[in-house]
Amino acid sequence: MASSAAEDLLSIGLIEKDSNGDVLWTWCYPSVSEVERNAVLRKCGLQTGAHHHHNTDGAGDTRQISFVFSRFQRNWFYTNTTEVFEADHLCRVKQFALVLRARDFNPEKYETLCRILSKTYCKTGSTTAIVDLYLSVVTRGSCSTEENGTFLIKDFEQKKAFANANIKVIINTFKLETILIYTALILKKRVVVYHHRLDCLLSFLRVLPAFVWHRQNWDILYPYVDLNPEELDDLKMSTTYAAGFLDATIEARSDLYDVFVNLAAMEITVAAHAKGTLTVILNTMLSVSFDDVFCCNNCRFLYDDQDS
What we know:
Elements: H1 2-8, E1 9-18, E2 23-29, H2 34-43, E3 52-54, E4 62-64, E5 67-72, E6 75-83, E7 93-102, H3 107-124, H4 127-140, E8 142-145, E9 149-152, H5 158-163, H6 167-174, H7 178-186, E10 190-194, H8 198-205, E11 221-222, H9 229-236, E12 241-245, E13 259-262, E14 267-270, H10 275-285, H11 290-303
Parallel strand pairs: 10-12, 10-13, 11-12
Antiparallel strand pairs: 1-2, 1-7, 3-4, 5-6, 6-7, 8-9, 13-14
């Protein structure tokens, strides 16, 4: 288990926002490239104050989404943002984002580890303290703290991260049109999803690979992409993907997708260049029920894995 952790967990870093509003990468171990740093800076929310959404209770106030996951240059980036209070040992720091770079998709695992490391940094103000915990995870597959509990890699199986996908919500939302998403994924096409709320975007995107459960491939995911040349070039290196955007102008970029899902408007559009291929398959699938088509490929996931 420790060797698996060593293979998957690649680096740790800190981005801090000081009392003057300046946002900088202040530390990383062992290293993060400049292009990776820039990508994470755009997504951490510290520069723009982004990633806020309205509460669903109608109170009208906003909350920051503290945990974000994204994929860039074939690695996963897990970012946890923390508010700093007077009692914390971080002078002149208002907020910071702790960033973990890893090879594997497992948001629950890395959110737990991020929070333990973030709380330790708040209490100690020391990068030595968090790098000790980081190295313990890499070498032993675990780390322990007096106040924040114990983290064990073995508690977070990859299969459970994959199975944390509520396909029925998507089917209930898009009804028969869900078959457009399913067909695109089966045919290894490019699916782009837009929503103005990051929490909705991330929760939707992580479900999509479950439609082709038999492949067990969550590396088709690019759940949070900016309309930035470096990120778009990275995306184009993949011939099939499911990518999420917060910028509504992505709809005009039909060169980047075969199927476009406007999650906010609950609309699905097939790009003109993809209609020929998709129509032939769709006509065949529509001759039987969607449940029959979907379940014949994924029945084991639906009836076994989600219950485990």
